[in-house]
Design goal:
Chain A: Keywords: Cell membrane, Membrane, Transmembrane, Transmembrane helix. The structure holds two protein chains of two kinds. By secondary structure, chain A is mainly α. Chain A is built from four helices and two strands. In chain A, strand 1 and strand 2 form a beta hairpin. The chains are: A mainly alpha, B mainly alpha.
Chain lengths: 138, 495
């Protein structure tokens, strides 16, 4: 498939799709969305350009070594465990802090959110790995 | 202190991350050995903690017991963690020399730690559904490990392994559903408390049967063991030995956990069923092992036969018998892995696993012969090595409790075991090397990293035999705690 329209669209749509995925990630704690869904969306958005150009071998920054995403994601998940240990609570207890931001009533940040970001990156890595393994010719 | 309960799961997780980030194979080897060495220290520390406190429980995320996931370490879990860590450590060293060039160390160790994580998770979890998750982690990692070499047989073996085990997982999940539907909880301690005072506990039989078959598949008991001989001889010997020591034993562990903690109603029926299964498992595995002439196949069938003894201990259900089952499980994990390790060395020396094609190894390497002799005699039950005491406890428990048939079967299966071991001994070590293409393979002297894991496990087997009384005390404590789980229940629910 070598369509100019698709290729041009892919260039711009990718970032739109990725920002939508991040939006899904952000609202995920109490609303539909979250790390897993966001990760799937972002993963497909990254793959999208590869489809349009019919080339996964392209040495593109975002596409290289999907394991990196998995490593980063799992590392963030691990990081999210650490505050609960230092707070003297059982492992994986959610710890929340409120960051004061002008004009807003403050943004609540917590370890479950960090965990969610970790899931987000892990799922991106897995999605990319799936697509690459299935499209590559051996 | 309490966070240490989660570390057997977190430690492999940390090493998976570092292996994903640092992709060098040289580093992967070091990480693998270092990580599994740390795991031994950690499990040893947990073991000491448990000796002091009896049972330790960690409520994950601070959610109280019946609602959140609880991680629990009691005597049995602690013993299993230590033994598993020892095996994992020796396999990590063994892998450095015995993995073929086609398998990258980095990839191997990622899934190696994945398997370890699932294994440790299954040992420490106090929640039935969480146990299912750890089983799946283990299943996925082991499937990848089987097929890592990318050959046709490995794929065939892997798919058989995968599909039969997925059926097991399906039944497991069905059992979980029924259990939850009836009791409204999946926390093991809570289940125990509910079912103890429930005169309708017999309704749990449907669920218990599903679990029985699911664990039966995992533990490879008769007649559900077909996946094991179909897959264990296909991957590289390192991976076979890893599986031989660990995978089926998790099934045995869950059997012991479930049928002592909360499936304790209708005992007559269940113990009868366990004993019948145990008897058939021993004989079927032993017979099949006697019929084969390929080392890995003999040893694979032999795993099945030995599972029978552990189930037998559970079926007799006296404290002594359960202590015997635990003792036997420890002994078997160590000795069985060791025989596989030696089988790998024989194959490396001669280039084949077929016993008919090899011979004369005793003359060439008496050291290798001794390495084989220790685990083989341990398995056959020759005093003073570990297997003798393991079998002795079980047989004593059987006779005391009046289970004469199963005791007789156990003694006769011992003969079959001895026969299989002597067969390998005669064929590989004593008889002269037949004149064939393998005869000209030059015998390379074993390097330190090649024989060290086997020496380590062999020494453990011998020490277990020499200090059997101490070890027996530990297993007896574990058995008493299993027969009377009030401390376990109390620690989880009120702790």
């Amino acid at each position: 498939m070598n369509s100019v329209i698709l290729q041009l669209a892919a260039k711009y749509l990718r970032w739109l799709l990725i920002s939508f995925a991040v939006l899904a990630l952000l609202r995920g704690h109490n609303n539909p969305g979250g790390g897993f869904i966001g990760g799937l969306m972002a993963g497909l958005a990254i793959v999208y350009k590869g489809f349009a150009f019919n080339a996964f071998q392209v040495k593109e920054k975002l596409l290289k070594r999907p394991e990196r995403y998995m490593g980063l994601g799992l590392f963030l998940i691990l990081l999210s465990f650490i505050p609960s240990v230092f707070a003297g609570k059982p492992l994986m207890t959610g710890i929340w802090i409120t960051v004061p931001v002008p004009f807003f009533s403050g943004i609540k940040l917590g370890t479950p959110f960090l965990f969610d970001i970790g899931v987000f990156f892990t799922v991106i890595g897995v999605t990319l790995l799936f697509v690459f393994s299935l499209t590559q010719k051996k | 202190m309490i966070t240490f309960v989660a570390l057997p799961i977190l430690l492999p997780f940390i090493f998976i991350i570092s292996l994903l980030v640092f992709r060098s194979d040289r580093l992967a080897g070091w990480l693998g050995v270092f990580g599994s060495g740390l795991l031994i220290l950690l499990s040893g520390y947990l073991f000491i903690l448990v000796q002091k406190h009896g049972v330790i429980a960690l409520q994950m995320g601070g959610w109280e017991a019946p609602f959140g996931i609880t991680l629990v370490v009691d005597f049995l879990s602690a013993i299993m963690l230590v033994v598993a860590a020892l095996i994992v450590f020796s396999i990590a060293i063994y892998a450095l020399r015995f993995l073929p060039k086609t398998i990258r160390l980095n990839r191997f160790f990622i899934f190696f730690f994945g398997l370890t994580m699932g294994l440790n998770g299954a040992f420490v979890t106090g929640d039935v559904f969480n146990l299912f998750v750890w089983f799946e982690v283990m299943l996925m990692s082991s499937f990848v490990l089987i097929t890592l070499g990318r050959t046709k047989e490995q794929l065939e073996g892997g798919i058989k392994y995968m599909s039969l085990n997925l059926i097991g997982s399906l039944l497991f999940l069905a059992g979980v559903g029924l259990l939850y539907g009836k009791t409204g909880t999946l926390n093991m301690a809570h289940l125990a408390e509910i079912l103890k005072n429930d005169n309708q506990a017999i309704l749990m039989n449907t669920s218990a049967v599903l679990f029985f078959v699911a664990f039966g598949i995992k533990a490879a008991v008769f007649p559900l063991y077909f996946w094991l001989p179909a897959s264990y001889h296909t991957p590289n010997i390192t991976i076979s030995s890893l599986f031989a020591g660990l995978l089926t034993k998790v099934g045995v562990y869950t059997f012991i956990r479930f049928f002592t903690l909360f499936f304790v109603h209708d005992q007559q029926f269940w113990h009868q069923l366990l004993l019948i299964t145990a008897g058939f498992t021993m004989v079927a595995g032993g017979m099949a092992a006697a019929a084969h002439y390929e080392t890995r196949r003999i040893l694979s069938y032999h795993i099945i036969s030995q599972i029978g003894y552990m189930i037998m201990g559970l079926g007799i259900f006296t404290p002594l018998a359960i202590a015997g089952a635990i003792f036997f499980t420890i002994h078997n994990m160590i000795a069985k892995t060791n025989t596989f390790l030696v089988a790998g060395m024989i194959a490396k020396a001669r280039g084949t696993f077929e016993l008919k094609e090899v011979g004369g190894l005793f003359k060439q390497s008496p050291f290798l012969a001794i390495l084989f002799m220790v685990p083989a005699f341990a398995l056959a039950g020759v005093p003073p090595i570990s297997g003798f005491f393991a079998k002795f406890i079980l047989i004593k428990a059987g006779l005391e409790n009046g289970n004469y048939v199963i005791t007789a079967v156990a003694i006769l299966t011992g003969m079959l075991t001895l026969y299989s071991m002597i067969k390998i001994w005669n064929e590989a070590f004593l008889k002269a090397q037949p004149a064939n293409e393998y005869a000209s393979t030059p015998f390379k002297k074993l390097k330190f990293a090649e024989y060290f894991p086997s020496v380590l496990l062999g020494a453990t087997s011998i020490l277990m035999g020499l200090f059997a009384a101490y070890l027996f005390d530990f297993t007896m404590n574990a058995a008493n705690q299993l027969i009377d789980p009030s401390l376990y229940i109390e620690t989880v629910l009120k702790g």
